[in-house]
Amino acid sequence: MIPARAIDRGSPETPTKTRERLLDTAERLFAERGFRAVSVRVITSHAGCNVAAVNYYFGGKENLYREMFRRRLVALREQRISSIRRAMAEAGSGASLELPLRAFTTAFLEPHLDQSGGRRLMRLFSRELLDPHLKAGTLQREVIEPVHSALVEAIQAVCPGLDASAARRSIHSLVAQLVHVVHMRNAPGVLRGAGREDFSFPAVVDHIVRFSAAGIRGSLT
Amino acid sequence: MIPARAIDRGSPETPTKTRERLLDTAERLFAERGFRAVSVRVITSHAGCNVAAVNYYFGGKENLYREMFRRRLVALREQRISSIRRAMAEAGSGASLELPLRAFTTAFLEPHLDQSGGRRLMRLFSRELLDPHLKAGTLQREVIEPVHSALVEAIQAVCPGLDASAARRSIHSLVAQLVHVVHMRNAPGVLRGAGREDFSFPAVVDHIVRFSAAGIRGSLT
DNA sequence: CCTCGTTTCAAACGATCGTTTTGACGGCAG
DNA sequence: CTGCCGTCAAAACGATCGTTTGAAACGAGG
């Protein structure tokens, strides 16, 4: 085979350390195929290092997974919460309901327009929800609950008549639609035939904003 | 260990055949832990037979999985489509929008109230979407697309002003909320603290019906 | 009784898994 | 130079994977 040391090294002026290459490679492969489907040998060969490196740097495959995940959790939470806060600040006090809704929706979906880490992160997220390898409730505590609370708070600010329960459920409905879009765009072989353009930007954003705004107003009474 | 033949046999008057026991056991275990996480030895020991039985009856683990899945696909599709048709028939020609929406929602969510096969099937569904082991597009062709078409047709019947694109997207929004409820109720450790009652029946059904009806009406113009 | 096809079994196959061992290599302080 | 430390790779470890094998056990028909 190819000499392991010869492949996938960064450019010589940035001799990326083995540890970081392992984290990056693991993130990509785990997102594409899932935790169990990726062996440490596949990871290390793609990262251009020896099998033992995983245990040397992380003490095992599962710790590599958790370390890889932990890197992204805080960044994801802060990015989303700050996008909510920014949208609320721009909206001002007399903002319409549609404006923050549109800001949330685009902030959530735009990472999936490019080929960068945003899509990967949501795939990792979905897999972790279905097949947990972090400590129980980590995702909920670190990301889901804080973002959900921020969204509820923002919605209640622009929709004073909405009681707490209806606000929480409306946010669930909004998030559900966003997650659904992500799933449909990620799932292989699902977007076939007609309906492929149902999830194309920016029409899907327009629909979600309009649908959710009407839904929230309908939950007011 | 325990003698394999001694465990998990059906009652003596129904000497369930090995083949069917394998299918049932595989369905339960695959739904709980996923395809790769369940070994054929675990399946056969729970089914009370020898390891070789999987290859004898199905020719391999993957074929067992596909056979197990194939049993349920047609039934799931027919149950959902018939529930749609039945709701439309009961609604009559002058039906309100809320009535079929409520019928769809309860039909989709009620299997998750009991501990029976409905929950399992949706877990298998989610796993298959994220980690496919059927031929590409099988889920889409056998279930998702037909049910989606039936829903679009029904919605357009009670909502004549809705154009085709808005109807498809509105159904996506409805299904997204239903799937979200299923995921939240299935995911381990996600429903903690406050927000646990956000997905309890029948309040969640009421919310989805009201939210979606308003959303659809808001997509009309 | 015997035969024959079906079913089930214990045992073993080769492959691959995550992990550990062992030691080589290079830079740096003493 | 010597000794140590961080880095890393080759090899091997035991375990488990899906699958195969060959024969025993079974039940129905002659």
3D architecture notes:
The structure is a homodimer of 221-residue chains. Chain A contains nine helices and no strands. Chain A has 221 residues and is an all-alpha fold. Chain A has two domains: 4-58, Arc Repressor Mutant, subunit A (Orthogonal Bundle), CATH 1.10.10; 71-218, Tetracycline Repressor, domain 2 (Orthogonal Bundle). Chains A and B meet through helix 6, helix 7, helix 8 and helix 9 of A and helix 6, helix 7, helix 8 and helix 9 of B. Chain A binds a DNA duplex (30 and 30 nucleotides) through helix 3.
What are the SSEs and their pairings?
Two copies of one chain form a homodimer.
Chain A: H1 18-33, H2 40-47, H3 52-58, H4 61-91, H5 98-109, H6 117-130, H7 138-158, H8 164-186, H9 203-218
Helix pairs in contact in A: 1-2, 1-4, 1-6, 3-4, 4-5, 4-7, 5-9, 7-8, 8-9
Chain A binds a DNA duplex (30 and 30 nucleotides) through residues 4-5, 18, 39-41, 49-56, 60-61.
Total individual domains of chain A: 2
What is the number of helical segments of chain A per DSSP (H or I, 4+ residues)? 9
Between the first and last Cα atoms of chain A, what is the distance in angstroms? 68 Å
Number of strands of chain A: 0
**Most extensive protein-chain contact, per-chain counts:** A-B, 55 and 55 residues
Could you spell the SSE succession of chain A in H and E letters? HHHHHHHHH
The stretches of 5 or more residues of chain A where confidence is low (pLDDT under 50) are: 1-15
The biggest beta sheet of chain A reads: none
User: What shape does the CA trace of chain A take?
Assistant: elongated
Helix proportion of residues of chain A, in percent? 55-70%
Structural class of chain A: mainly alpha
- The level-1 CATH class of the largest domain in chain A: Mainly Alpha
